[in-house]
Structures are given as C-alpha cells and as structure tokens.
Write a structure and sequence with these properties.
alpha/beta, Rossmann fold, Structural Genomics Hypothetical 15.5 Kd Protein In mrcA-pckA Intergenic Region, Chain A, six-stranded mixed sheet, 35% helix, ubl conjugation pathway, nucleotide-binding, Uba2, SUMO activating enzyme activity, metal-binding
C-alpha cells in the first residue's frame, strides 16, 4: 500500500478502500464544484486500481463485445464538461491557471488532477452530456455519478439517465454561502424532480415597458427590449418579458407600434445622427407618450423625459471619450451625465461592430460593450422614473442572473459529496460492484435492507440530505433523512426499460405498438416521444410511419413514454433506445424490449377511502403525511426550524448537542 493511501484506509477500512479503488465514477461538470470534487476523488484514490490483466488463452476466447464491455467497466474517473476556461473562473476553480484560459475545462482538469495521484485513471471528454453517445448504456458502466452542474436542464437530464440506468447519483449545488448535497437512487430515495423547481422569472410587458418600479424592471427593459431591438432580435423571442392576462390589450398594441418605430431608427445606424435619434426616441418621445396617459399617474409620480440636446450641452468634453474613461469605473455609481456619456460611447462601439459585419449582437455579461450599453440605458430609465441608480457591477449581477460563487462553499460541498459517496459505496454489496443489475421494475427496498446478521440498516449506507447553512451561527452543516420517492413524480415513479432497435431497421410505429400490446397485456395506452404524442386509442394515423421518424438507434439519450389510458391505470413505462448490432439472425431484425418480463404496478389511488375519509382515520389511526408535505423546505437552503431540530435536544435543564452518526469520518463498521 502506498503511503498516500494509508490515511484513507485508516478512516474507511480496507474493504471500502478496495471498493473505492476499483470503482468507476462519472463526474458531470468541471467548474466550481466539479474541480473540487475531482481533486477529492483523485486524492482519495477513486478509480486507481489497475485494470485486471488476462492471460493469452482468455484473451483469445474473449469476444469483441465482451472486450468492449470489459473496457467500459475499467476502474477510473470520467469527466465531461462542455465549457472552456474563462478569466472569471480563476478565483474559485483552482485546477486552472491563467495560461489555461480558452482551453477546455475537462482536459485541463484531468491534466492538473492527474499530478496529484498519477495512478488514477482519468478520461476527459470536452462534450455536452446531452450528446447521443452518452446513452443509458454509457451510464450503466458506472458505480456512481456526481452532478456538478450549473443549469436546471442538464441536472434533470442526468437525473433521468441515472434513474433509467439504475445508478446512484450525488446531486450538489451552492448558492453563495449556502450549499446542498443529495443522494439519489431509483426506488430508494426521492429524485431531483420529485419536488417542483422554481421557473425562470418573467415580467409583465406593461410593467417593463410602461410602469417600472424596481431597478430590475429597468434592467430587463434595457437587456430584453432595447438592446435586441437595436442590435439583435426582436423582444418577441425574449423569455424575460411576457404578455400576461393583466396587461392592457390596447397598451400592448401601442407598445408594438413603438417597437416598429425603433426598427426604423435602427436603419440610421452608421450615420452621425444615429445616437441622437435613438436617445430621443426611447428617453423622450416614448416617455412623453406615457406622461400623456394621466390616469396612469394618479397615484404615482409621472416620469421625467430626457433630451439628447440638453444633456450634451451640459457636458463640456468629448462625450465618446468621456464615456470610454467612465466605463472602466464599473464599481462606481455613475451620475445622470455619466450614464449619458457611457450610453453614447457603448452605442458608438456596438454600431461600429455591427457595421463591421457583426449583424446580430447578443447580450453577454462578459462582453463589456453590451454590458456598458445595458447598464447605462437601465440607469437612464431609472432616473426618468425616479428609481435608485446602481453601479455597473451590481447591474451585471442582476442582468446576468449571477449568484455569487464562494470558493469555500464549493470546497465544503465537494467534500460532503465524497463523504456521501463513501456511504453509497459501503451500501453496495461487493458482488454488485461494477455494473449494477436492475430488476424488472428497477426498484429496491425503499427504506432498509437486512444484513447477513439480520440487522436492519439504512439504505444507501445511511446517506443524508446535507446542507451548508450560513444562517446558523452554531452549526453550519446540517442534515436531514432522505425521503422515499414521491409516488406521483412523473420522472422516477415510472418503470424504465430498454427498446432494442436493430441497425438500419425498417420497422414502423405499428410494430412498436403491437410489441407493447403483447408485453403490457392491454390496448388502452398512449405513446409519447420528443415530437409529442404519436399514438393513442383515438390517434392511429401515424401507425404506418417508419419508427425512425420517432426513434433512432443513434439517439440513445431520448425516451419514449407509454402511458396507460385504462380505468385503473398502471404506472407509466419509459423506454430508452438501445442500438442492436447487425447480424444474420432473425432476432436482430425485430424490435426487442429488455427486460423481457415487465411488471407494471397500478398507480397509487387517492388518499381518501370509500367513505371520503383519509386513509387510516377510519381505524382510529393517524393519517399518513403526504410525501410532498414540507418537502419544499429543503431545497437550496436549510430552514432554521430543521436546523434547530437536528442541532440539539434538551435533557432536563442541560442542553445536549447531538452528533449525527453519518458525519463521522470513520464509517467502516
């Protein structure tokens, strides 16, 4: 044993240390949390066991398929990240240096982390986790998956792939000083989608365009309306501004007329009067139209319009040069005249870029010209509506939806991820190390498992939901028991199976429907793909169409959902595509579903019994608590009530602090 492994072995014990070394893990994301997770994995020896050697006889007898499968199961760490390194990453992603800027994060992370422990096998992929090669079969080759992502769509995708592959997932995230780590396993714990997630906030169009009252309203106006209308695409494509039921239809029509007028002003780009026409149009003419609507200002102060001519006369300097000098002072709050100068400078710079061939310019918080334009325009509009002004630094955070990233939060969260990984690996029987074998329903016991001695132990080795709680001054790390799956969750409640699609198949949708009828034993169901619903009992015109229009053997990360439409519906069936190799046998030319035996349970009924009483009350028993009740308290922050409940308990007059078993580093029995 190497000296570097002795500390890990003393903490974990030799059996778990061996499992750690022979494990194969996937890390999705090599950013703030991802860099720290990779460093911890490498230093703890994950995937450092050399691949087993084979003698000549066994090598000759091994088929090509078996060889490919054996290669996939080799111990190691696979890192996937689509991004390249940016200057702003260097303050918290410590595997990167200045000379690495513009290089792929995955490759540089592998290079730097390998120096910590050269015996670890690291495979780096500069790609998107949505790419078709990362299918369910790819995920099945791992013992454990770590999520270190920064967007909701990718998190949901990895969550669904791990459910389909029946592989444990360690989900993590940070928000400023707060953090969260969650262990997820199909049929054992709730998944990432068991509780609803907040959607992107949008604002009513009339609030943004007519009656702003907050700085964010002016920022969204500058970012999602003014900037796209002049340098990009129309606001109709923006997700930040939406027409709501409360919006006045006549006012919305008037606002569309204003947008059309602004497009005409855009045609003056490159001429000397362009800046003046743009400024007077949005900061004078449009404001004067709003002022004329007196009924809007009966209970609030009306806006005060600005004119280009007056402001330019009050500045005794070259406006463009003055704005260029002020733009550097991004942490200072500019005055009205300062914002006017920066606006003119950024408008001139962006016009030159557009005239040089950059026909469509999109807002980017890291593009200084676009940020200067949005910040100055937002502040000018704030001044008009008597809203406090902000520095460009503050506006950048709001316009770019930036949540401050704290290096220490990332490091603590990453360490908790690896501690939870130890527990998950401990919960896996040694004979199941490697490729997990799912059951017909992909389900395991939900709460406890029995050991050889008959003792009941928590599932997933006692894993917990762990939080970094900056609001608690007494205990920063708090935990909460994992919750069983939500039976109504549309992502983890279905049964997952595979649809084998032969290479170059000419099968039709009708053949798939017939196969499903044979496997499911009933006719009333619907079939939904990425293209929408393609079949149900009343929709059969798509049956003659080639299955390749909806399913391709090359799109293994796409899913087909089969929903029972009968009076007593069973849970949904979700199929992932599996490419079958070309061969001469008849079995290779027909569609196949794996596993061959499907056992779909009935969907859970309503919580009320026949007499209209909640289940349990009829027998004098307390009604069970709904799975979703109180669940929203846990996401993204540890509530003070939860923190207090697990931080301490009272015994007499003495306050006793409770130490959770799962928080000890020594986890070997």
């Amino acid at each position: 044993m190497q000296r570097r492994d002795r500390g890990v072995a003393q903490s974990l014990g030799l059996p778990i240390t061996k499992r750690v070394k022979e494990s194969r893990v996937l890390l999705v994301g090599a950013g703030g949390i991802g860099c720290e997770v990779l460093k911890n994995l490498v230093c703890c020896g994950f995937g450092s066991l050399p691949a087993p050697t084979r003698n000549g006889a066994s090598a000759v007898m091994e088929s090509a398929t078996e060889a490919a499968s054996r290669e996939d199961k080799q111990p190691g760490i696979v890192v996937i990240d689509l991004d390249t390194i940016d200057l702003s990453n260097l303050n918290r992603q410590f595997l990167f240096r200045k000379q690495h800027i513009k290089k792929p994060k995955a490759f540089v992370a592998k290079e730097t982390a390998s120096a910590f422990n050269p015996s670890v096998n690291i495979d780096a992929h500069h790609a998107s986790i949505f790419d078709h090669q990362y299918d369910v079969g790819f995920f099945e080759t791992f013992d454990l998956v770590f999520n270190a992502l920064d967007n909701l769509a990718a998190r949901r995708h990895v969550n669904k792939m791990c459910l389909a592959a029946n592989v444990p997932l360690v989900e993590s995230g940070t928000t400023g000083f707060n953090g969260q780590v969650q262990a997820i396993k199909k049929g054992v714990t709730e998944c990432y989608d068991c509780n609803p997630k907040p959607v992107q906030k949008s604002f009513p169009i009339c609030t943004i365009r007519s009656t702003p009252s907050q700085p964010i309203h002016c920022i969204v106006w500058a970012k999602s309306y003014l900037f796209p209308e002049i340098f990009g695409t129309s606001e109709e494509d923006s997700a930040d501004v939406a027409v709501t039921e409360g919006d006045n239809a006549e006012e919305v029509a008037k606002l569309k007329e204003e947008a059309e007028a602004l497009k005409k002003v855009r045609s003056l780009m490159g001429k000397s009067e362009f800046a003046q026409e743009v400024f007077n149009k949005v900061f004078h003419d449009d404001i004067e139209r709003l002022r004329s609507m007196s009924e809007m200002w009966q209970s609030r102060k009306p806006p005060e319009s600005l004119t280009f001519e007056k402001l330019s006369r009050e500045i005794d300097a070259d406006i463009i040069k003055r704005g260029q000098a002020l733009a550097i002072q991004d942490q200072s709050t500019w005055s009205l005249h300062d914002n006017f100068s920066v606006f003119c400078y950024s408008l001139d710079a962006l016009s030159n870029r557009s005239q040089a061939g950059e026909k469509v310019i999109e807002f980017d918080k890291d593009d200084k010209n676009t940020l200067d334009f949005v910040a100055s325009a937002a502040n000018l509009r704030s001044a008009i509506f008597d809203i406090p002004l902000h520095s460009e630094w503050e506006i950048k955070q709001m316009a770019g939806n930036i949540i401050p990233a704290i290096a220490t939060s990332n490091a603590l969260t990453a360490s908790l991820c690896v501690l939870e990984a130890f527990k998950i690996i401990r919960s896996q029987p040694a004979k199941q190390q490697g490729l997990a074998k799912p059951t017909a329903n992909n389900n395991l016991p939900t709460e406890t498992q029995s050991t050889a001695s008959g003792k009941a132990e928590p599932m997933l080795g006692g894993s917990k939901m762990v939080f970094l709680n900056s609001r608690s001054t007494e205990r920063m790390i708090t935990t909460q028991n994992l919750v069983p799956p939500n039976p109504a969750c549309p992502v983890c409640s279905p049964v997952y199976a595979k649809l084998g699609v032969p290479a170059g198949t000419k099968a039709t949708l009708h053949e798939l429907v017939l196969l499903l009828k044979e496997k499911l034993g009933h006719d009333e169901f619907s079939v939904t793909t990425d293209a929408g619903m393609v079949f149900d009992p009343d929709l059969d015109e798509n049956l003659p169409k080639p299955l390749s229009e909806y399913v391709s053997e090359s799109k293994g990360n796409a899913f087909i959902t089969v929903s029972d439409e009968s009076d007593e519906p069973k849970v949904d069936l979700i199929l992932s595509t599996l490419a079958l190799p070309e061969a001469g046998s008849a079995s290779s030319t027909t569609l196949q579903i794996e596993p061959t035996q499907l056992n779909l349970p009935y969907k859970p009924k309503s919580s009320e019994n026949a007499e209209g009483q909640p289940d349990g009350e009829a027998n004098g028993e307390p009604a069970p608590v709904s799975i979703g009740e109180g669940a929203n308290k846990r996401k993204r922050e540890a509530d003070d009530e939860v923190a207090d409940s697990i931080r301490k308990k009272t015994r007499g007059d003495e306050e006793v602090h409770v130490v959770q078993d799962d928080e000890a580093i020594l986890i070997d029995d």
